Amino acid sequence: MRILITGITGLVGSALADELRQRHDIIAAVRRPLKFKDTFAKERLDLNDSDTIKETVEAAMPDAVIHCAGMTSPDECEQNREECEQINAQATAGLAVVCREIEAKLVFLSTDHVFSGKEGFYKEADSPAPINFYGATKLAAENAVRKILPGSIVARLPYIYGKSRYRGDRFTEWIVESLNSGREVRLLEDRFRSHCYLGDCARALAALLEEGCEGLFHLSGGNRESRYRFGVMLAEIFGLDKSLIIPSQSDDPAEREKFSAERPRDISLNSEKLLRETRFAPLTIEQGLENLKKFFSA
Ligand SMILES: NC(=O)c1ccc[n+]([C@@H]2O[C@H](COP(=O)([O-])OP(=O)(O)OC[C@H]3O[C@@H](n4cnc5c(N)ncnc54)[C@H](OP(=O)(O)O)[C@@H]3O)[C@@H](O)[C@H]2O)c1
After folding, report:
1. Rounded Cα distance, 71 and 86, in Å
2. Among residues 22, 43, 119, 261, which one has the fewest Cβ atoms lying within 10 Å of its Cβ?
3. For ligand 1, what atom is nearest to the CA of residue 7?
4. Model-level pTM greater than 0.85?
5. For residue 298, is pLDDT > 90?
6. For 72-106, what is each residue's pLDDT tens digit?
7. ∠ CA 115-119-121 to the nearest 5 degrees?
8. Degrees (nearest 5) of the Cα angle 284, 287, 293?
9. Would you say the CB of residue 70 lies under 6 angstroms from ligand 1?
């Protein structure tokens, strides 16, 4: 397949490109020259500029587009609402229209932040009710994609931890750096997500595309944990000082000051549908962290 990937300089896009390049022709849609040497064919794409979307896709003429690019920090989205709306919602809808015109399959990456977090362990049939602007724009994009291209794939991702050739996830790197320098970290005991290992995320998305799936899918890691428990497991597996990890609660004034966007309480995802419809099987957090440790000690 000829696959155009947006957001290839990001965490998920870079890992996905590495997973798929073994079997497919990859074209990277990027907004600035890549800093690293790479062998991907490239097209320019700026999601702030709607005209480039049509030009980019028509120049590449892919069989499939995997749309990983977006404004991904909930706090940045809250502070830059207009730009967030354009990048996450309008540009995604525009991409879906072009994909329909050239009959390309679209895979859109959405988020667990489309849920309110009141229930947890969400299935695809559960009603989304985002409590922050990031979640609202991703939900608007999902709705547009599903309406314009009913045969597309919309994959809702949980928190992705890991390292690709180009970068790692910020949460894990911050914990490792802090503990290595003897600094305390405060992690929330009352906020839950289904942390998923980056390599698993790339393999699951590849399976959805390659196995011809259509529709809405939830991806989750092997288990649901609080941010605090995840940090403790990371410290244990990496041999770091876990006594530096201090449990905190989201209603602590110090925690509330850290974020501009509301953080939902429990947005863990149920991925039974994905497991049923593909050959994908996720690692547990312990196995994922053991894999990640090899990158840090390499
Ligand atoms: N990582 C997670 O834990 C997670 C969880 C749930 C959902 N998701 C979703 O999964 C997708 C990938 O996430 P990620 O963590 O890999 O994101 P990321 O690391 O933050 O990367 C974002 C990517 O989007 C590109 N981008 C941003 N604005 C752009 C613009 N105006 N025009 C063109 N490209 C632009 C960035 O390019 P530059 O390098 O040029 O800035 C970068 O390649 C996103 O849609 C996100 O909402 C991720």
Report:
1. 10
2. 22
3. 43
4. yes
5. no
6. 999 999 999 999 999 999 999 999 999 999 999 99
7. 80
8. 140
9. yes
In the prediction, which pLDDT does 256 show? 76
In short, whether 13's Cβ falls inside 6 Å of ligand 1 is yes
How many residues are recorded in the chain?
298
Residue closest via CA to ligand 1's atom 47 equals 72
Burial class (CB in 10 A: 0-12, 13-18, 19+), 189: middle
Pure H helices in the chain: 11-20, 50-60, 74-79, 81-84, 91-102, 133-148, 170-180, 198-210, 227-238, 253-258, 272-277, 285-297
C-beta of 221 in contact with ligand 1 (< 6 A): no
Pairing of strands 185-188, 245-248: parallel
Residue with tokens 């259509």: 214
148 alpha carbon – ligand 1 mean position (Å): 22
CA 94/CA 50 separation, integer angstroms: 7
24 phi and psi angles, rounded to 5 deg = -140, 165
